[in-house]
């Protein structure tokens, strides 16, 4: 029996959309799981993940590829879709990997005092944090920041700093060696690429090759 095509579900980072995946070249069927508006300002992350998982058939073997905060959702969705294999790109698996500022926010609730519009108003600061180059990468980052809904950002940051993690999950990890947002991630990653937090754009060719090789090594079984 002929093997079914590889199926990828891609989850972008906080507030981002399919634009961050535009340079990936994956061999198989590709779907982007777009962000849903939170049902309430206090919607729990597992509940949100269950709504996101509705787009992934339960009996379907697939790859869940999550970037940054999208990796957190990939891990949560995988709890509901046992046939899914997870790849984290520029992401993390638990609170111990977050920088000290996130730990402070977790303990004090300081993040509630920071306006979610801050980074869009300071694009050059965002450029430094994300480690993107001038030109098309910078323009893409500016567009994504401009288009991010403040209410979604506020909800997502609150969920992110309180997330207990999925430390025992079997995942493949790809991380930039110069990631300023999540600098500890490279230590825990099987694939370390030169670059910052937005390597899904700047190192799209290498990430495409890794994902395609992983899919070929572990083919999807027919359902």
Walk me through the structure.
There is one protein chain. This protein is α/β, with parallel strands linked by helices. It has one domain (7-217): Alpha/Beta hydrolase fold, catalytic domain (Rossmann fold). It is built from 9 helices and 6 strands; from the N terminus they run ββαβαβαααααββαα. It has helices at residues 45-53, 69-78, 100-108, 118-121, 123-130, 136-147, 150-162, 199-202, 204-217; strands spanning 7-11, 29-32, 62-67, 84-89, 171-176, 191-193. Strands 2-1-3-4-5-6 form a 6-stranded parallel β-sheet, with helices on both faces. Strand 3, helix 2 (69-78) and strand 4 form a beta-alpha-beta unit. Helix 1 packs across helix 2. It starts with 6 loop residues before the first strand and ends in a 6-residue tail after the last helix. Residues 104-111 have low confidence and may be disordered. Residues 10-207 form the AB hydrolase-1 domain. Pfam families: Abhydrolase_6. InterPro entries: AB_hydrolase_1, AB_hydrolase_fold.
For the record, the CATH class is Alpha Beta
Radius of gyration, in angstroms, nearest whole number: 17 Å
The helix/strand series, from N terminus to C terminus, equals EEHEHEHHHHHEEHH
Main beta sheet strand tally, sense and closure: 6 strands, parallel
**What is the CATH homologous superfamily assignment?**
Alpha/Beta hydrolase fold, catalytic domain
Spans of at least 5 consecutive residues whose pLDDT stays below 50 are 104-111
Which structural class do the helices and strands define?
alpha/beta
**Mean pLDDT across every amino acid position:** 83
Instruction: Work out the strand percent.
Output: 5-15%
How many H/I helical runs? 9
**What gap, in angstroms, lies between the N and C termini?**
11 Å
Strand order of the largest sheet: 2-1-3-4-5-6
Protein name: AB hydrolase-1 domain-containing protein
Domain AB hydrolase-1: 10-207
Pfam families: Abhydrolase_6
InterPro entries: AB_hydrolase_1, AB_hydrolase_fold
């Amino acid at each position: 029996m002929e093997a079914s095509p590889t199926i990828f579900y891609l989850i972008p980072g906080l507030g981002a959309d399919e634009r961050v995946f535009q340079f990936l070249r994956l061999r198989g069927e590709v779907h982007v799981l777009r962000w849903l508006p939170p049902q309430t300002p206090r919607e729990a992350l597992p509940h949100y993940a269950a709504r996101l998982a509705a787009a992934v058939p339960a009996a379907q073997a697939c790859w869940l590829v999550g970037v940054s905060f999208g990796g957190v959702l990939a891990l949560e969705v995988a709890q509901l879709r046992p046939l899914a294999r997870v790849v984290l790109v520029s992401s993390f698996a638990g609170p111990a990997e977050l920088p000290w500022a996130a730990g402070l926010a977790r303990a004090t609730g300081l993040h509630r005092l920071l306006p979610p519009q801050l980074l869009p108003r300071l694009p050059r600061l965002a450029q430094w944090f994300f480690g993107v180059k001038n030109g098309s990468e910078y323009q893409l980052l500016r567009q994504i920041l401009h288009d991010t809904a403040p209410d979604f950002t506020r909800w997502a940051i609150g969920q992110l700093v309180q997330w207990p993690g999925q430390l025992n999950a079997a995942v493949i990890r790809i991380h930039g060696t110069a990631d300023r947002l999540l600098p500890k991630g490279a230590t825990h990653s099987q694939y370390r690429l030169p670059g910052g937090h937005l390597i899904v754009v700047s190192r799209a060719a290498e990430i495409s090759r890794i994902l395609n090789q992983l899919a070929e090594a572990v083919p999807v079984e027919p359902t």
